[in-house]
Amino acid sequence: MALDTLIEARGVAKTYQSKDGPVESLKPLDFSIREGEFVSVVGPSGCGKSTLLKMVAGLLPISAGTLTLAGKPITGPQKDVGIVFQSAVLLAWRSIEDNILLQAEIRRLPKAAARERARALMQMAGLAGFENKYPWQLSGGMQQRASICRALLHDPSVLLMDEPFGALDAMTREKMNLELQRIWSASKKTVLLITHSIPEAIFLSDRVIVMSERPGSIAAIYDIDLPRPRPLDVMGTERFAAYARTLRAHFFAQGQLDAH
Ligand SMILES: Nc1ncnc2c1ncn2[C@@H]1O[C@H](COP(=O)(O)OP(=O)(O)OP(=O)(O)O)[C@@H](O)[C@H]1O
Ligand SMILES: [Mg+2]
């Protein structure tokens, strides 16, 4: 294992045992993610992206292979990881601030400092003034931003995100992409992001893992060699377009148009 490798998968596979028999979700995968790296995963619906993320989070056991975080096998929920799920998963009876503070309660973090950090994160995510509102009083995009704040509250070194911006309008999504780039470069977090958006994957990532149809396997891994920090106009450049064409070709070759 290279010194700066943080997450390493060797022959990691997943077969779900359902009542109708085994469902092969992921074929053996090999990849490694370096400390501080931003890696995205793109692939057709049902190819096992969420499955992969849940295994890295330690929420789901692997069926074969070895999966390590900082050299230690991942055998259960990981402390130093923040997770943003595909839906916001906020508790309806708690205010937005209290939903974010749930992270601190579970981890028994000092209250006053956690509240201060929650407020700073809400400010960053454009949620200032909504601290005492309930989830049902917020738009879907705002709820998802609150769930990102919750994932960041304990300042984890690894951030796992499952299609976190899928429910946002295009303009808010671009704003969140910029914010995420800023947070990532300021905090040197290691990010694994699942997205259906090829431009989002290219814009944010050091490397993009392309997965093939179910049962998922890695079709290709691309280095995105664009200078940082990346302004939004980088999306209009020829180099960006070339990356987008290369990535899209995978999905057209599979007869899939899942990526938009
Ligand atoms: N608990 C489960 N039991 C049995 N099969 C499952 C279970 N969870 C997922 N699967 C199967 O594993 C496959 C991968 O599911 P997963 O949720 O990882 O896909 P995904 O790539 O995240 O898709 P999407 O882009 O639609 O979110 C699916 O085909 C699904 O049928
Ligand atoms: Mg999924």
How would you portray this structure in words?
The protein has 260 residues and is of the alpha/beta class. It folds into 2 domains: 36-62 and 69-80 and 158-260, P-loop containing nucleotide triphosphate hydrolases (Rossmann fold), CATH 3.40.50.300; 91-155, no CATH class. It has helices spanning 49-57, 96-106, 111-124, 140-152, 170-187, 198-204, 238-253, and strands at residues 5-18, 21-34, 38-42, 64-69, 72-73, 81-84, 158-162, 190-194, 207-211, 218-223. A hairpin with a 6-residue loop joins strand 9 (207-211) and strand 10 (218-223). The two termini are 36 Å apart. The structure holds adenosine-5'-triphosphate (ATP) and magnesium ion (MG).
Major sheet description: 6 strands, mixed
Order of helices and strands: EEEHEEEHHHEHEHEEH
User: Going across the major beta sheet, what is the strand order?
Assistant: 6-7-8-3-9-10
CATH topology of the largest domain: Rossmann fold
The CATH superfamily of the largest domain appears as P-loop containing nucleotide triphosphate hydrolases
Q: What structural class results from the helix and strand content?
A: alpha/beta
Rg, Cα atoms, Å: 18 Å
Low-confidence stretches: none
User: How many domain units?
Assistant: 2
Helix content: 25-40%
| Average pLDDT reading | 92
What's the end-to-end separation, in Å?
36 Å
Number of strands: 10
How would you sum up the global shape?
globular
The CATH top-level class label of the largest domain: Alpha Beta
* H/I helix tally: 7
CATH architectural arrangement of the largest domain: 3-Layer(aba) Sandwich
